[in-house]
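Hello forum,

I keep getting stuck at the same step: I have a sequence, I want structure tokens, and every attempt I make locally crashes halfway through. Rather than fight my setup again tonight, could one of you with a working pipeline run this one for me? It's a single chain of 152 residues.
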Amino acid sequence: MTTSMISNAKPGLDHHAHEAPEMTKSPAQASSESHEHHHKTLAIPAGQPVPTIKLVVHPDAMQGWNLEVQVTNFRFAPEQINQNSLTTEGHAHLYIDGKKVTRLYGSWYYLTHLAPGQHHITVTLNANGHEELTHQGQPIAASVTVQVPVKR
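Reply #2:
Ran it on my machine without issues. Output:
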């Protein structure tokens, strides 16, 4: 089940929420970025509600961006990191331009100091043992593209 959504769109932002970030990338982009994901995967079992993820980027009033990670059928559980993996809880991994930046233990993250130009931001849902959650062989992830203007 792959969905694409555009919501709360602001100039310079392209919002995509889906279970397979590669669906909005060219084959070359998907190939060049896929080598950055080194974690094992954990499939959502048949009959279990599939977690969903949506990213919304809010320009910060001072500088930078506030990344909002909206999830369903999933709970951020920082207290369970490195414990038994469940498909209903864990954390997220934040990638900017295909490179892992950090783990996310909650719904909000402040991004600062993005260089001028276009940046592809992806967040994957991960189990407590860091496995990337998948459904029908695709990562459960969402992506947005942010266009950072040149300062004048």
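Residues 65 and 105 are 18 Å apart (CA to CA). If your local run keeps crashing, start a new thread with the error log.
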